[in-house]
Design a protein that fits this description.
Blueprint: E1 36-42, H1 61-69, E2 71-77, H2 83-92, E3 111-112, H3 120-124, E4 130-135, E5 154-157, E6 179-182, E7 185-189, H4 196-210, E8 216-221, H5 243-264, E9 271-277, H6 304-307, E10 308-314, E11 323-325, E12 329-330, H7 334-342, H8 357-360, E13 373-377, E14 381-387, E15 390-393, E16 396-400, E17 415-419, E18 422-425, H9 441-458, E19 474-475
Parallel strand pairs: 1-8, 1-9, 2-11, 2-12, 4-5, 4-8
Antiparallel strand pairs: 2-10, 3-19, 5-6, 6-7, 9-10, 13-14, 14-15, 15-18, 16-17
Length: 477
């Protein structure tokens, strides 16, 4: 049975929140109507793949305009550098390993998001919001795990990644036909992927038009630019960078269509819009991969290129236009912030995110509410953390691209690389090039103590620790 209990008492813990969020939309009080929330999420988009973050070879005018009208977040993180885990954190406000979701679930997975967890869609249902997801879900493909069982009124999209299909370049005979789902019914298999971005956009615009007179939460989780890349005729051959640029230009077009729909119905001053990526670029795909810009490595690693993503937020009249934030924040903060803005209660279990509205709205003196952000990957391995300017890497093995990248949809191989206990000053070394661990013993001691606290809470397979605060994923039997 789905648990939907919420409570109002405050709690404490290792960066945890178990509390009610007080005060509905009292920020500008333009009307009594509750605000709308729109989340646009790209898949495998690199840190430097949007014009406002340094993209080259193609243009992203709509996202750039959104940035000019809103706020850029330069130090915005995902909890893990991989699909399912990243999305689990965004939607539940929890580190993904807290709720038993790691890695990228495929068609063989018998587990998914537990019925005991609360998604953003379920939080907003307290105030009778209309809810929809169009795009990639990736939190379980079996019936109990689908979006319609977790607070979403509407769902149209893929249950997992678009490369989990027949003729995968590295595993040709492993995947069954790729399903396209509407609601809980598979309506097609192996759909024309060149039409996915258009279809998601059309659904999103229709949803806004049908729900313009009530509060809504819209989650557009793009399939692209995850490989295999595909683009509609509208943008084919339009980019100097080739197919990858074409695909990103179409995602930008999609954002423009959704922003235009909000403007058309007079919703710009009632709607918080967020754009981000689920992790960094899949570098082994070469010209079919994005760019992490000045950041080290990419998807599948906890170096900055894997976990730091471009993020833009806009809410006319509430978020200062043309502003920039350098505070370390994470997708786990989205759920409690939304709950705060609509006056909703948080779940009756610990979550890890914090209300970051003071930072989003550029309140004077606002700082990140997190003393530390943690980064897990692999078999529940605590591989890194960030505290203020400092990034600590713990000894682990990771995949690094050491040979020439692949081309035209064919990936190159990765080699195993090892790192030790390392410390980086991200304020002066965004590329994590200079290990300064020998210079700051007091910082090292503090960060190691913080890591030990989290190991007690969520475990760490690198040190053979079991966490006391881990909840089980849902299991289909």
């Amino acid at each position: 049975m789905k648990r939907r209990a919420f409570l109002k008492t405050a709690g404490a813990g290792i960066g945890l929140t178990v509390a009610a969020c007080s005060g509905a939309w009292s920020i500008g009080q333009k009307s009594e109507r509750l605000p709308n929330f729109v989340i646009l999420l790209a898949d495998d988009l690199g840190y430097a793949d949007v014009g406002a973050f340094g993209a080259k070879g193609y243009q992203t005018p709509h996202l750039d305009r959104m940035a000019a009208q809103g706020r850029i977040f330069t130090d915005f993180y995902v909890s893990q550098p991989v699909c399912s885990a990243s999305r689990a954190s965004l939607l539940t406000g929890c580190y993904a390993n807290r709720i038993g979701i790691n890695g990228a679930l495929d068609h063989t997975a018998r587990h998914g998001i537990s019925g005991g967890e609360a998604t953003i869609a379920e939080i907003v249902k307290q105030k009778n919001y209309a809810t929809a997801i169009f795009g990639k879900w990736h939190l379980g493909h079996l019936p109990p795990f689908l979006p319609t069982r977790h607070g979403f009124d509407e769902y149209f999209g893929l249950p997992y990644s678009n490369d989990m299909r027949p003729n995968h370049p590295s595993n040709k005979n492993y995947y069954p036909p790729l399903p396209l789902i509407k609601g809980e019914k598979t309506i097609a298999t192996n759909p024309d992927q060149s039409l996915l971005t258009t279809w998601y956009t059309e659904h999103a615009v229709s949803f806004i038009e049908r729900n313009k007179d009530q509060p809504f939460f819209l989650y557009v989780a793009h399939t692209m630019p995850h490989v295999p890349l595909a683009v509609s005729d509208k943008f084919k051959g339009k980019s100097e960078q080739g197919l990858y640029g074409d695909v990103v230009m179409e995602i930008d077009w999609s954002a423009g269509q959704i922003l235009a729909a909000l403007a058309r119905h007079g919703l710009e001053e009632r709607t918080l819009v967020m754009f981000a990526s689920d992790n960094g670029p899949w570098l082994s795909y070469g010209n079919h991969a994005g760019s992490a810009g000045p950041l080290r490595e990419g998807k599948g690693t906890v170096w900055e290129g894997g976990i730091r993503v471009p993020c833009i937020m806009r809410w006319r009249g509430e978020i200062p236009a043309g502003s920039r934030c350098r505070e370390p924040l994470m997708t786990i903060d989205v759920l409690p912030t939304i709950a705060h803005l609509m006056g909703a209660r948080l779940p009756d279990h610990p979550i890890d995110g914090k209300n970051i509205w003071p930072i989003i709205s550029s309140t004077a003196g606002a700082k990140s509410p997190h003393e530390v952000l943690y980064f897990y990957y692999g078999r529940n391995e605590l591989q890194a953390l960030r505290s203020e300017r400092w990034k600590m890497i713990f000894p682990h093995t990771y995949d690094s691209l050491t040979e020439k990248p692949g081309r035209d949809g064919q990936p190159a191989g990765y080699a195993k690389a090892k790192c030790g206990l390392e410390l980086y000053d991200l304020e002066n070394d965004i590329g994590e090039k200079q290990n300064v661990i020998d210079r700051y013993p007091d910082v090292v001691k503090k960060l190691q103590d913080l890591a030990e606290q989290m190991r007690q809470e969520l475990g760490d397979s690198l040190t053979n620790r079991q966490g006391r605060g881990v909840r089980a994923a849902g299991i289909f039997s």
